[in-house]
Structure formats: structure tokens, C-alpha cells
UniProtKB/TrEMBL annotation, chains A, B, C, D:
Keywords: Aminotransferase, Pyridoxal phosphate, Transferase. This is Aminotransferase class V-fold PLP-dependent enzyme. Coiled coil: none annotated. Belongs to the threonine aldolase family. One of its GO terms (molecular function) is transaminase activity. It comes from the Bacteria. Its cofactor is pyridoxal 5'-phosphate. Residues 32-290 form the Aromatic amino acid beta-eliminating lyase/threonine aldolase domain.
């Protein structure tokens, strides 16, 4: 069996979660997220974000979270602004448009949006009522390119959105990896203050499934549960999501898991840098995009699975390596060994 | 703690499932239902329905299954026919209409649809193009009232649908309970022959979550996975669903679990019948609707949770009792003890 | 050629309208309802409803008006309440559901809704968030059965809606006929006060096409034009609608036209009543539903077109006769002549 | 009053149309496009396109036509490919996305799509089922930049679409102008052969309102009328559209009208070319985009209305001038006079 660096959802879940599922298994509980585990998990999250007025909802996956959030917030004629690399643009089978909303795409260098990126989009959408109305800014942290937002960047963007009556929504499928990156200066508390809505991704950080959607803007909280149910996303056994987030939040397991993923990716990164390998983008999370010679890629592919991300020239391509909460030294060391031998 | 007869999803899942989740937990697998457990589970289901041309997809819950199936099959102007008790009509927050499709409701005595029920609906929808076009017949087995379809009823309905170019879709959230009912004469194989599409419900029969959607009509199979993804229902860790159905299908665990649920409900039913208690409808599955005196209801409510379903007169109401895969003798015996003492 | 009593849109439009279209034809005007005729027509309507804060929009037809109004007002999980005879339920090819909203149908005797009809619907929709949320009450005046609302009925319904946070929307495809009925006691001003939104139908009252949507509730006015454009309903040559409503509003032509339609229907009604003919419902507008012997129906059908509405018994059926702004004495007299000769 | 070159829908309609509306006004006709004028107009169009198996439907406007066609043809997960200048992308308030379908945008030099443009889009959409499926190619002729497709270009594109199982849909809001352009080599017959579906625009070519949608691919014809009705686009008095297209088709009035519009635009173009004025794009239809000095623009703006299309540098901008079926020598001569005096 080859070891896979293709993504961070190749394994099951952290053993603590399975233990908790076993521990509580036969205790009867109310359905639809009214169980005591879900209630406790929500309480814990509120403590961590230090915002008692936020509302929290558990949803099975990222595409589901994105489509429910966006379709709940926007009026039919309002649209989303996203970096062209945004997960909602290219990787969700048009899930957002399927709810009726256009996404305006902005080219960026590193997957991050700035006020300067958004200004021309607003300027080009003033032909009322013949154009959609931009209303929600979608960002990912960490981004689909592995980069992260710094605190001053988020503050600027948040202020800009408020000034322009735009909602700021952060896709946090890999928020754990962003917040535990060695270059991060943002706290969970900051994010709860600076965004209208965001989510803490479980699926890509050690849960079997599940994202915790956190609505900070109280105007957007009303009746949100109706939207979850209507989209078929309200699990009868909501306990499955509640128990997982309870475990992840306790003792900061959530952050320890992403810390490990980041650490293992950075180990490979440093080994490659020592050999003067270049990267498609500079990242400090669990995604790295080294540019490798095709021969070396072929050799690595005999023992490892990963995506070839972008052809650079006749001799080399960028590959994408993703580490997970469960990637251990054995995997990364054997990868590095090949690098060290070959370069 | 009161024991709950409110529904069949109050507990977690059958222990075999948790053991399997632990067993396979750290083995890396491809995402999005391409894992080996999902593939094996699909193979097992195909063997059980004795139809190799059916396609099988795992989806998290019933509302999700209903909305994806219906919105995938129908053209925008086509609509659904359902008994007025249908789950899609009253218990899914308009999920079907939210995908653009009207549901025509038919009053029935027992939650089951017959060709005779449907004929007038077709006759009243001939003002082309000013009315929706009826195209899909939605039935539940067992129904929301606990009743089940007999083989000759299903055959008639299936033939009628074919003759009238209607699709027949069976909501099988409680299909296990129907097929293991003491009065059942239908096999899984029959259902695969007589319906265009149906599902095997896991959530209400011992799984943590999950329904297995089975598309028998090969014309309806094309590109179905796109629809699942677009509705946010394609789990990254599809293994979670695959492992569960693998366990449920092995050694017919699925049917043993619903058998227990039925058995426990029938035990209570017989105890009540001995005392000449009447029922709202005659059922042979895990849902019973006895009509009880309000004083007795109050007394039972001290030890048990259940829904008061329908007020009958000043003195009595029908209650709904649902047993599950995990309901044991202790629970039903203590319920029967009160009945025996009081009546 | 047979004379048609099938509907009130068999002819073109009142000659004044064509004259105005000719008169203004070659004058250049801005597009999209910014032309001076549209602005003047809106001003005139505001004067007539005596409410300067209402906003007015011209839309081509009734189904279009209904679907734009409803989909603009409601959030995805909110639904409509309508009498079972409502045009939106049976005659618009599921246009409302196609925008994502369920319609709850209420059986009525005469096509009119009362608070008493609505109370049980609200009581049956309290299982949050598993059911749609009733939010908008749709009524027609005159109704699809030709009946009309009296002032005290509208006042009660309006008060009830406000108390229950429901919007009241009046489909006025035949509002002219209601307001000029001999038994009417409601004014246009009353309607602007008692409803959140309503429309003045042009198509069934002497225009080529066009309905004037009037939004009285200022909370519902924001950005309405975006919805019109997004649904493809914003005519480039908005002047076509503006000129028509300008003509219809001037000198109360609108009401004179419906007065004629009502008068001609009442003439036939009285002739039939003299012969002791019974009616399916008692109406005082331009729709009548006499119950006639099949032989007589056949005889009338040789000279006139009309719909057979409902079979009553082996010998007789109710037919529907509709008169229009352009129906003249010659048509009704020749109809009455047959009646007089045969009965 | 300034003369407007802002668009081609500033005036009413060609007098012949009004005369016909008057002529047929009081003749009773069936509703919903079953009137004899609509039937005759459809027959005439079929003769002109020399294709008796095409089906024809009249719809009020371009956005309406685009959204009904696209939402009728595509399955939920299928998407549209369009040049970035496509009307559906920027000028229809997200009408297409509101029906659930994504539009993939392609940058072009001149508003026209080629197979070479489309190939990379197809190549980038192979990650099944995580991306939308490209299925319909939307083109405009003439384009939003005034350019037109040559026969060999259309043939190549049509062949490419067939080979790749893509539908080819031509927005013909200004098809008359394309077909009467001095450089055109395409016939109406060619278009009926090379596209799956297209429309003949009336609104921008002398009608009060109306587009004739022509479905050539017989697989796409089934039940189309349901879609029109469901979107609120089926006029009760369909005669209004039928009479207009009857007049436009008779004696080729339709083409004479666009010929005049083109002629007047070309007159201005030649006058500007004589003065060595440059243009944003080279066009031979009724839209021209000359690049003028700001001082001259200000001077012209005193007597004429037009859009400033794009700033070129500190001194000059491109303006858009559109002529119509009704633009006469007086208007263009007085424009040219200023040009001649100033340059």
C-alpha cells in the first residue's frame, strides 16, 4: 500500500472520538441536535470564541455548510464575491449557483482577498437593477493554496465589508491548520469578532464528519435551523456531530491535531528547501506545493500518492502534498529519505 | 430517566458498527464513497436485491435522500403524488418544494396509495400547460402510520405507474420494519423489481446515519453522483456510510434489528388488545397508535416518553409508541406492567 | 363564428389604448419603465389609492406577478396559505413551488379565506424546524369563483394577519370587477390600507397585457426591481405597460370597463333567475355558474363558447360564463333569447 | 430633446404593427398563443428557416427567453459556457444562476466564441462529480460588441458542439442586424441547421415586445410550453406577440428594419473613419464604438444621448452608438455634421 498525501480525509477519526461514540452509544437522547453532547459542545465553543451571543449549528460537510449559509443569508438577487481559487467556485458542482446565487470570481496571487481586490467588483456592479448585487465576501482560512490570513489583513477586510454593507463569511474547513500555523497571529476570538459567520471544520481535522457553523452576526441567526432542515442537513442522530465536537474541543484536541498536520508538512518543506527546491506558493500549513523534476515525481509516486497540481515546464511540475492529523514521522521520514537520496 | 418510545433514533448504533469503525479506522482510503467498504457494501446489496444493474448510493438521511432523488428525476414542471401522510409533505420543511417541485396530496385511510387514489389526480391534471404534470408516485413502506404494502398492492401500483408513465419511488426509511413484519409477503428482490428507485433506511434501523439509495430504472442512473455532490450530500469520508451498510448487510443484521423493533411493539400491542384497547390504525411494525384514557396516559408519561398523536374525545387520545432495534424486554415489560395493573 | 363566453381576454384592448400607443409611438423614451408614461401612470395610481408611500411596478401578467411577489417576500422556508381554488394552486403550472415555496391549501365554500380558516393551519405548523413556516396569505378579489370580499371581511383578515405576522397579498387580476360589483363596499383606498401588497389586473380588464403591482408595506419595497429583472419580467419597452395603465386610469376607464363586464353578466344571471335556474355560487361580478340541463347546454354550445365547469348529475351541469369589457348587448341578448325560448 | 443613440428600443414599434393590432383588435381569439395570428406567424417563420420540424414559441423579452431556454434544457448539475461579454453574464441580474445554473465565462477579443476557446474549459472540468458539467454553449449574433459570426465560424462551432455533446444556443436579440450586415454570409436557414435553439429578437428590431424562440433540436421540444407557463411568460393575449411577428415576417419587414439600423450606423462609421477616428472593435451592424476626444464627446452630448463605454486614456474614451429601425437621416446627418465641423 502506498502512503497517501492526497488529502487530509483519508483516515477515519481520532480514537478519542470513537471511544466517546462507544461510551455514550446506548444512552437515549433527543434527536436533531437537541442531545446533551451537542449542547455541551456548543457551550464549549462559545467559551473558546468568547462570544455568548453567537449561535452554533453542526452540519455534515463543507459544501453543505457553504450552500446553507449562503442561501440563508442572501436575497435572490444578491451574490457572492470569492477568490478564483475558492472551493465554492470549482469544487462544489455549482452548489451555490444551484441555490440561485451567482459567484463573482476574483483572480488573486495567493488565494487571499483584499479590499483592493473587491473595490473594482463593486464599481462594476452599479447598473441597478440589471446586475446582481454583491453582498457576501467568501474567504477560506487556510486557503485552498495553503496560505493564511494575518490579523491585520482580516481586520482591514472586516472593516471594508462593514463599510460596504457586505457580509464576511469564512470557510474554515481547515481553520485549525490556519490557527496553528507557525506564522499565525489570529485567535478564534478574533475570528468571531471579525466575521459575520464562519465554521470550524471537523472533516479535514480528525472528525468522521462535521463542521461547526458559528453565526456571530445576530441578524443572521433567525430561523437558521429551518434552512438546515430544508436542505436535508439536519441529522436525526445529531449526537453523532455533537459527540465529535465535544471531544475535539476538550483539551484543545482540535488544535493539537492540526498542529501535527502542519508540523509534518513543514518537516517535508524544510527538507526540500535544504535541497533548494522551489514552491508554487509559500505556505505554513498542512499543504505544500513543491516544484519537482518529473523523474523524481515518478520515483516518489511509486511509494506515495499525491496530486500533480500544475505543469511548470517540460521537466518539472508542482505537486500538492497534504498531511493530516494522523500523518506520522514514519510517513514523512520515508518521503524525506527519498528526497535526500535523490537531490 | 424516562424510557423513550418517541422514535427509533434515540440511541447510537448497533455495537457491530462501532467495532467496524474502530477496526478500519486508521486504514487510508479514497474519499467520496470510493473506499473499499462502500464498494463491498454496494456489492452485498446488489446480491440481496438480485439485480446487478441497479446503482447504489449512500446518503446521510431521509430528507436528503428524498430531495435528491426527486429533484434529480423530475423536470421543472413535473410533480410528485403522495399520500397526505407522506413524510415529504409535513415533516421536511418544504424540502421538495424548495427544489422547485409541487407535491399533490391524496387523503388515504391508512397511509397507502392505490391506483384508484391516483386516477382522479391524473384526470384533474390535463389542462396543458397550465398545470403541473404528475410524474412520480412517492410511497413509504412501512408508512408513516406503521402500515405496510402487500405484494399484490405493490404489483398493481407498479403496473399502473408503468402504464401511466409515472415513476414509482419508495421511501424506505423503515423498510426493514416493513419487510420483517409478521404480515409481510414482499421481498427485497420484489421491491427492486417493482420500483424505479427506493432506499434502505439506516438511521431508523441501527445505523448512526445513512440511507442506501437504490436506482433500479437504468434511465435514472446517469450522472446521479453530480446531484449528490451539488446538494452537499457527498461525504468526504464516505467510508462512514460504507462501513455501516457493510455491517448491516452482513449476516442480515439489518433485518434482525428491525425484527426486534417489531417484536417489542407487537408485545405491547397484544398486551393492550388483551385489555380491549382500540387502535387508531392496525399496524404490524414498530409503530403502534393505541387509544388510551387521559388518566392512563398521564400515569404512563411519568415513566415513559411518547407522543400524544391525536385527541379522540374528552376522555381519550391516541398515542404513538415507537420501538427501536435496541428496545429490550425490560422496557416493554415495565410498560406492560402498568397496563396490566391499570386496565 | 361562435361568440365566446370562455374568458375575459378573448379580444385585444380598449381602443383608447391603441390610440395612445399610436400617439406616442415615435417619441423616444428611456427603457425599463423609466419612460414618462409609466411615471405618470404610477402617479395617477398613487392618487387613486391615496397612498404616496406605496411603490408601483408594472408586470406583464398574473402568474408573473404572483411568482415575483411571493418569491421576493418570502424566505426559503416560508410558505403561502391559499384557498384551494386559488389561481396559484391549480392554474400556474407550479410557478410558486418552482421558486421554492410550498402553498398550503384550504378548502372553502366560496373561494374566500377567513381567519377561522387559517387558525388550524397555523396550529398544525408548530413543529419547528420540521415544517414550513406559514408567512403569506394569498387571496383573490374577485375570487376564481366570482365572489368578492366585503369590507368587514377584509378588515378582519387584515387584522388577523398583522396579529400573526402574516403578509396579506391580494391577487387583483379581476380587482376592477370586484370593486364595481353591485354589492361591493370596498374602495381602492381600503385595499391599499388593508393589504401589504396587491395588484390591479389589466390583462382581464381591457389591456393588451399588464398588471400594476402595488406594494403598500414599505418593508417589502426594497430592491423589488432586481426581482423583476431577474425573473425576466422587466420589459425593455416599459412604455407599453405605462401607456396602457395611463389610459386605463384616466377618467376611470378601468372601472367603466369592468362595470360593463359585470352588467352583462348580471343581465344573463337575472334572465336565468327569472326561469328559476340555480347557480353553483352566488356571484355579482363577471363570472356566473348557472346549472343547466344538458340538452340546453348542447343547444347553447351551437352558438356560444363556454366551459362546462362541473357535472351536477346525469341531466345537468354547471357551466361558467365570463363576460368582458367588450361584451355587448347583442351577445348577451342573443344568449338570453335562447334561454327565454327554451325555459 | 436630445436624440438618443443609447439603444435600439427607445421608440415604440413599426407602424405596420400598430395598424395590425388595430385591425384585429376586436376579433375574439383563443388565449395563450393559440390565436390564428400566432399560428400564421409560426408558419411563416418555419417557411423562412426552411425547417418544418422546428418548434416556435413567442416570449416577451430576451432575459426571459434566455432563462427559460437554459433552465428547460439543462439538468441541475449542467452549466453554460459564454463569452465574458455575454448578455446573460453581466446584464440579466443573475437570471440564469437564479434558475440554478452556473455560467463559465471565457475572455474573448471580439465577443465571439471559437472551439479553441472552449477546449480548455472542457479540459478543466473533468473532476467528476466535483465540478459542474459544461453542456450548453451560449453565443450572441450579433454580439454585445456588435460583431457577427461568419458561416465557417458557425459551422466549426456547431460541429465542435455536436462532437462534444454540447448544445449550441444563439441569442438572437439582434439577429436581424447580424443577417443584414454588409459582411454577413449566413442565412436564417443556416442558423436553423447549425444551432439547437435560437431566437429572433423583436424588441430590438421594431416590435413593442417579443422574441421568437425556435427549437431546432427535436429532443429539446418536448413539453416546452410548460416551462414558459411556469416562468410566468405565457401571455393570456398571446395574439399581441403573434400579430407582431406576423407583420415583421411578412414582406421581410423584419430584415428591412435592421437593414436601416445598420445603414445609419455605417453612415456614421464612415464619416468617422474619413476623419481617421479609431474604433474599439470593428463592427458592421447597428452598434459602433468610436474612440473620441473628451471635448468632442462633451459637445456631442449636448445634442445626443449615448453611453460612454470605456475610458481609453486621459484625453479620450470609446462611446457606444446604437441606431434603430427608426433612426433616420436627419438624426445621423446632424451627428455627422458636428463630426465634420470638429475634426
Amino acid at each position: 500500500m502506498k502512503f497517501s498525501f492526497k488529502n487530509d480525509y483519508s483516515e477515519g477519526c481520532h480514537p478519542n472520538i470513537l471511544e466517546a461514540l462507544v461510551r455514550y452509544n446506548l444512552i437515549q437522547q433527543p434527536g436533531y441536535s437537541e442531545d446533551e453532547y451537542s449542547l455541551k459542545a456548543k457551550k464549549l465553543i462559545k467559551e473558546k470564541i468568547k462570544n455568548d451571543t453567537s449561535e452554533i449549528y453542526f452540519i455534515s460537510g463543507g459544501t453543505q455548510a457553504n450552500l446553507i449559509v449562503i442561501s440563508s443569508i442572501l436575497k435572490p438577487y444578491q451574490c457572492v464575491i470569492s477568490a478564483s481559487t475558492g472551493h465554492i467556485l470549482n469544487n462544489e458542482t455549482g452548489a451555490i449557483e444551484a441555490t440561485g446565487h451567482k459567484i463573482l470570481s476574483i483572480e488573486t496571487e495567493n488565494g487571499k482577498l483584499t479590499p483592493e481586490d473587491i473595490v473594482p467588483v463593486l464599481e462594476n456592479h452599479t447598473n441597478i437593477p440589471h446586475q446582481v448585487m454583491p453582498k457576501l465576501v467568501y474567504i477560506s482560512n487556510s486557503t485552498e493554496l495553503g496560505t493564511i490570513y494575518h490579523k491585520n489583513e482580516l481586520e482591514k477586510l472586516s472593516r471594508f465589508c462593514k463599510e460596504n454593507k457586505l457580509y464576511l463569511f469564512m470557510d474554515g474547513a481547515r481553520l485549525g491548520h490556519a490557527l496553528t500555523s507557525e506564522i499565525n497571529d489570529v485567535s478564534l476570538e478574533d475570528i468571531a469578532k471579525l466575521t459575520d459567520i464562519f465554521y470550524l471544520g471537523g472533516t479535514k481535522n480528525g472528525a468522521l464528519l462535521g463542521e461547526a457553523v458559528i453565526i456571530n452576526n445576530t441578524n443572521l441567526q433567525e430561523d437558521f435551523a429551518f434552512n438546515i432542515k430544508q436542505k436535508g442537513a439536519l441529522l436525526a442522530k445529531g449526537r453523532v456531530l455533537g459527540i465529535q465536537f465535544l471531544e475535539l474541543m476538550q483539551n484543545d484536541l482540535y488544535f493539537k491535531l492540526s498542529e501535527n498536520a502542519n508540523l509534518q508538512a513543514m518537516k517535508i518543506k524544510k527538507a526540500l528547501q535544504k535541497k533548494n527546491v522551489e514552491f508554487l506558493s509559500e505556505t505554513f500549513t498542512n499543504q505544500i506545493f513543491p516544484i519537482l523534476d518529473h523523474q523524481l515525481i515518478d520515483l516518489l509516486a511509486e511509494k506515495f500518492e499525491f496530486y500533480i497540481w500544475k505543469k511548470i515546464d517540460h521537466h518539472s511540475s508542482a505537486v500538492r502534498l497534504i498531511t493530516s492529523w494522523n500523518t506520522d514521522d514514519q510517513a514523512t521520514d520515508s518521503f524525506i529519505e527519498i528526497i535526500d537520496n535523490q537531490l
